[in-house]
Structure formats: structure tokens, C-alpha cells
Amino acid sequence: MPELQVGDVALDLTQGRPVHVLEDTGQTAAEWSDANDYDLCGNYGNSRLEAQPDDAVFEVVYCSNAKSEPSKTYAMPESRLLRIETEAADDGRPVAERAVVDVLEQLFDLAMQLDEDWNTEPEGFDDALSTLVINHSERLDTLGGEARELADVSHTVTGDVE
Description:
By secondary structure, this protein is an alpha+beta fold. It has helices spanning 29-36, 44-48, 95-111, 125-135, 137-158; strands spanning 9-12, 17-28, 56-62, 74-77, 81-84.
């Protein structure tokens, strides 16, 4: 089973309720506990599931019913969360991967468009990126921010360091 990622739906094993994974805190349960002056592993529900100090910690929100809006997020160790494989209906593509690919597709589509006069096709990737910056700066403010956020999440989740 794939590891938890931002965007996944998981089951809170102590309550049997679905949660949506909003953020990987980048901390272990021990680090989170120290930073927040709260024993995450000692929490009754977490201790019943034998949460360990080296468990990754995720910020989640309960998936409420249609009549209520989520009121707060919760920090949960990975041992408390069972990932629900909702992407089985999409040939196994995780939600987080779908979001990354969507943003990249939008960026590459913009980059490969002809210049503003529609008369010069980019000669290569570097030229396409220049065209993107020159002709689509307003879209880059939005997409670029999303791409940077997704890249940051990707590095946090996978532990990659540049």
C-alpha cells in the first residue's frame, strides 16, 4: 500500500471516521510532541494503536457530513491512519500525483504556445520557458505558486532535499 500523501483520504482507526490529509508536518511524533508540548504517542487513541515516537505526523481534517463544515485540523501519527485507496477508480493514480500532473500540464501547455503574435514556435524547452514568462506572467502568479507549493509538499513527503 502506498504511503500517505497530502490529498489522500484515510480512516481514523480510533474513531472509524474518514479524514482528509492536508499536510505532512515533516516531523516525527516525538518532534511534534516536543514542539507542541503534548505527548502525541501518549494520547489515549494513539497509544491504543501503539503509536511510535518515529511515526510521521500528518495534519488532517475529518470529512464531515454535508450539513457541517470542518472546524479544525488534527495532528495524527501515521499509525492512526489507514489510507483509503480511492484512486482505484483512476488506474491507481494517487490524488496528490494527479494534482501535480495537472499543474505541470497547464504550465507546459502555456510554455509550448506560440509567442504573443502566434508566429514563432519555441525551439526548445528553454525557449518555451522564456515564452511562458514573457507571455503568461499573470497565469504564472497563480500556477507558479501552486507548483512551488506542490514541489515543497513533494519534497516534504518524500524527504528529497535540493
